[in-house]
Design a protein that fits this description.
By secondary structure, the chain is an alpha+beta fold. The chain is built from three helices and seven strands, in the order H-E-H-E-E-E-E-E-E-H. It has helices spanning 10-20, 42-49, 142-173, and strands at 30-38, 62-67, 77-84, 87-99, 103-109, 116-125, 128-137. A hairpin with a 3-residue loop joins strand 4 (87-99) and strand 5.
Length: 179
């Protein structure tokens, strides 16, 4: 196959291709990728997706997510609680990139598990914004590594479901602050 048909200017096509192919990862890195086209301009798509207070609207697994006052600055923090694989997983989040409306990136730290490097890139399209996301981790060896692989597979399913839900949810909440 040749992939999806791109409708837009050549400059937008190049920008989309660059955003969709992030830099190579460290050897052994596990990466999952996901994306959606959100029918909003990049500034609105970025504002909605980057607000942890909105995440429960499109991630079924999110029980709570709350940003600290410093979220929106590199080094800013948030907390998130997910229900996955029959367990409650608490994560501490730290922003590593904040570049509205183009990109944000954060590290999710969970006790006893590898850190998750989460990147969200927003590419303007003629009819909205393409969100391209990646989540990377360095799996552990042995039995712990098998647990990490199961978690990675569950994360991929979780992100695929969230991306299917995101366009409609974001459009319905556009311009409203998170609850």
């Amino acid at each position: 196959g040749h992939g999806p048909v791109f409708r837009g200017t050549p400059a937008l096509a190049v920008q989309a291709a660059l955003a969709a192919s992030p830099a190579p990862s460290a050897p052994g890195t596990e990466r999952i990728s996901y994306g959606a086209v959100v029918p909003l301009p990049p500034t609105e798509a970025f504002a909605f997706v980057s607000d942890p207070g909105n995440w429960h609207l499109f991630f079924d697994s999110v029980r709570s997510a709350e940003a600290d006052a410093d979220w929106g600055d590199v080094g800013g923090h948030a907390r998130m609680t997910n229900a996955m694989l029959g367990r409650t997983i608490e994560s501490e989040l730290e922003l590593t990139v904040w570049d509205p409306p183009r990109e944000f990136r954060y590290t999710a730290r969970q006790p006893g598990r590898p850190d998750l490097d989460n990147r969200r890139v927003f590419v303007p399209l003629p009819d909205g914004t393409r969100l391209q996301g990646t989540t990377e981790s360095q799996p552990r060896g042995g039995l712990a590594g098998l647990t990490d692989q199961m978690l990675g597979q569950a994360l991929q399913r979780m992100y695929d479901k969230a991306m299917a839900k995101l366009p409609q949810v974001a459009t319905g909440h556009s311009g409203r602050p998170s609850q």
